[in-house]
Amino acid sequence: MTSLIDYLGSKKEEVEEVLKKQEESRKQLLDEERKNTRQSINFEGFDGKLDLLVDGIRKIPNYNNLKGYIRQNILPKNPGIDYKNLSTLAGVHKGVALVILYDLYNDKLEAELDSIDKDNYSVPTDI
Question: Domain residue spans in the chain?
Answer without folding.
Answer: 4-121
